[in-house]
Amino acid sequence: MPNPSVWQTPLAYLKGVGPRRAAALEEAFGLRTYEDLLWHFPRKYLDYSQITPISQAKPDQEAVFRGKLGSFRVQALPKTQRALLSTTLYDGHAWMELVWYHGWDWVQQKFTAGQEVLCIGRPILHKGTLRIAHPELLPLTPSQPAQNLLRIYPIYPLTEKLRRMHLDEKRFRNLYEELYRLTRFERPDPIPESVRHRYDLPPLPEALRALHLPTSLQEAEKALYRFKFEEFFYLQVLLLRRKYFLKTQYTAPAFTQVGPLVHEFYHKYLPFPLTEAQQRVIKEIRADMALSTPMNRLIQGDVGSGKTIVALFAALIAIGNGYQVALMAPTEVLAEQHARSFRKWLSPLGLGVGLLLSSTRAAERRRILTQLATGELPCVIGTHALFQDKVQYARLGLTIIDEQHKFGVRQRAALWEKAHPYRPHNLLLTATPIPRTLALSVYGDVDVSLIDELPPGRQPIKTLVRTEAHRREVWNLLRAELQKGRQAYIIYPLVEESEKLALKAVEEGYALVQQTFPEYKVGMIHGRLNSERKEREMQLFKMGHTHILVGTTVVEVGVDVPNATVLIVEHADRFGLSQLHQLRGRVGRGAHASYAIFMAPNDLSDTALERLKALVQYQDGFRIAEIDLKLRGPGDFLGTKQSGLPEFKVADILEDQPILRQARQAAQDLVNADPHLHRYPELLGFLGEYAARHSLELFTA
Questions:
Q1: Residues 502 and 608 in one domain
Q2: Pairing state of beta strands 296-301 and 425-430?
Q3: Is residue 398 part of a domain?
Q4: Residues 313 and 377 in one domain
Q5: Which is more confident, 170 or 567?
Q6: Distance (Å, rounded) from C-alpha 622 to C-alpha 660?
Q7: Distance between CA 98 and CA 108 in Å, rounded?
Q8: Residue 501, CB half-sphere, CA atoms under 13 Å: how many?
Q9: CA angle 314, 317, 319 (to 5 degrees)
Q10: What is the mean pLDDT of the segment spanning 89-101?
Q11: In whole angstroms, what is the distance from residue 87 CA to residue 540 CA?
Q12: Are residues 438 and 495 in the same domain?
């Protein structure tokens, strides 16, 4: 095995690179060292082991052709400042056209008319002639005959700048050949031999060689399988060890009694009958909280499925056993909504509920902090303010985190630390339905409960997708509902690049709605309003004094106004499908028929329009989440930084589900047999680096 320090050698010292190419590789892909180059993976493979005669070329099918180049011609493109370069390829029997629309300087520098080449590309029929745009050309010379070039080619991401420096697919392969000659790709293999043997995974050096220098497509595919497996495997080992240590190293208070508060609330104050799904999940929570190992349970439920009342029962168990409860929400509006609900339900039992926000006034803040520290206040609800240094709890026994994927791992842990010396029981809530595959990957360390039943009486929501050309029809529908005494939301997207732009859009929309519906009262709510103003606007809308509420997505979750029957989302194409489904859940909460109307610009592409129409077809949040996940990818779907989900280099959570299941089983078997990884020091050391790189929590004995 080469000296480990060789892998930190700057790329400029690798034969075929040099300072200029090294600078370009760093600029393009962040590659600085031999190690970086080793882990720069191909994006696909092309089988260039066979030459296809031009007469047998099939349109839209990539192939390798051999022939001589014709003369080069530069031709101005009409109505533009640009020009294209073209030539022909003739193999002695038939010919085709080759064209470059941009970035073609390097072609003229490197190739001449009459030169024999291998040409790689995907021909199309253009005005009856075969044409390849931006083909890959490999020159044939006595020192580089065709048989030396006919092989499997890994295709790496390349830039025009790299091509101009003659770093094409062929040169990239040469770099890996040189790196292999120097190092034999010898790296320690963190995957235990027993796992490799059971799942038929090649050792790491062999897999790296097959990845970069394959002799067949089958060999490359086997190497790719290994790297997909390992990406899932490392994450699953981390998650399953976290679950194990939570249950064995941390002690939570065991709530052995259901307590009188649960019985009193259930029999005297429960505002509506619980669904069977709610009852089932409450039983699961009850069983968890009776143990001295910390509960770590995720409650998944579609919009309006009644997660909050389930969380309340968990809170009553904790309070009934003499402990405090902290409920953390991602926004002040949602925290305020929870505080209203909890106060309404707990006040008949004589229990106080504090609301702690960054905007809470100093005197009120001091009162809440004092009562939390003495144990006088049994329940507090808030945002990030709940885990600030000054907040001390007398006996924190349960944390409830709503829309928990919007909080980072460290933020959640900071709240748990407040229960020292215990670890509190932990209940996670999400109305963002997460497909089972992704839940396994992201929440492998939690137990998942599903509320898969809506309370009786919820009306189905009629969903419409309309373009700007149908604006009058939409206003007419809204007016008809307002005349029946109903209310409506009109939502504008948040503009991440500029809060000012988002505010401007809402204010302009507010003015337009006032102008269009002068006989009705219009309110406005957005993130820049202070807490009191937001609260006032929401109260006016809830009490029916405001008929139309114009705002940003601050009304996305938790707001409950049964008389609101119309939701209009402007620029719906800028939202994710799951977010639109969340917004749709703001209506349909009463006994009246409701409408969700998603507005899109007239020039929206057919693909984008079809995406929105999935909401017309499906009311099930899980089905919509699966479609959304396929369209946006897991990182964007969850918000990678918040979810703690690493970005995978080759694995795809959706496409590679069978590999994910195998990797999870392998990780489960390993952790069950040796949770401390005493027998696998190589894996343990690697996981420490992996956890640090992805900001994940590494549990150690």
A1: yes
A2: parallel
A3: yes
A4: yes
A5: 567
A6: 20
A7: 13
A8: 6
A9: 110
A10: 95
A11: 71
A12: no
390 and 468 together in one domain? no
Is 610 or 699 the better-scoring residue by pLDDT?
610
Strands 83-90 and 73-76: antiparallel
Domain extent, residue 69, equals 50-150
Give domain status of residue 29, yes or no.
Answer: no
Using DSSP's 3-state secondary structure scheme, residue 322 falls into: coil
Rounded (10°) angle between helices 621-638 and 577-584: 130
Domain limit, last residue, from 642, 657, 672: 642
The pLDDT of residue 697 is 61
Looking at residue 641, its pLDDT comes to: 43
CATH number at 443 reads 3.40.50.300
Same domain for 305 and 412: yes
Residue finishing a domain among 642, 664, 683: 642
What share of the chain in percent tops pLDDT 90?
53
Q: Helix, strand, coil % (nearest 5) of the chain?
A: 45, 20, 35
- For the residues 456-469, what does the mean pLDDT come to? 86
Count of structural domains, the chain: 3
**Residue-wise pLDDT tens digits, 25-38:** 999 999 999 999 99
With CA atoms as reference, report the closest residue to 307 among 453, 154, 188, 457: 453
Do 483 and 399 belong together in one domain? no
Q: In one letter, which amino acid is 311?
A: A
At 414 the pLDDT is: 77
- 521 — pLDDT class (breaks 50, 70, 90): very high
Strands 95-100 and 83-90, how do they pair? antiparallel
- Helix, strand or coil, per DSSP, at residue 628: helix
**CATH code, domain with 68:** 2.40.50.140
**Which residue pairs from 609-614 have beta carbons closer than 8 angstroms and sit at least 24 positions apart in sequence?**
609/465, 611/573, 611/577, 612/465, 612/572, 612/573, 612/577, 612/580, 613/465, 614/577
Position 156 in a domain:
no
Residues 507 and 625 grouped into a single domain = yes
For residue 530, what pLDDT band results from cuts at 50, 70 and 90? Answer: confident
Least confident of 26-30, 127-131, 443-447, 622-626: 443-447
Interval 232-260: pLDDT, tens: 999 999 989 988 887 888 899 999 999 89
CB 275 within 8 A of CB 306: yes
In a domain, 199, yes or no: no
Highest mean pLDDT range out of 444-453, 641-650, 676-685?
Answer: 676-685
Decide if 318 contacts 294 (C-beta within 8 A): no
Q: How far apart are CA 59 and CA 66, in angstroms?
A: 17
> Could you count the other beta carbons within 10 Å of the beta carbon of residue 190?
20
What are the tokens at 394? 């007398």
Which residue type, as a one-letter code, is found at position 353?
A: V
Alpha carbons 675 and 238: distance in angstroms, whole number: 10
385 and 515 share one domain: no
Question: Can you list the pairs that 537-541 forms with residues at least 24 positions away whose Cβ atoms lie under 8 Å?
Answer: 538/333, 538/336, 541/487
Strands 152-155, 124-126: pairing is unpaired
Q: Which of 348-362, 399-413, 443-457, 669-683 has the lowest mean pLDDT?
A: 399-413
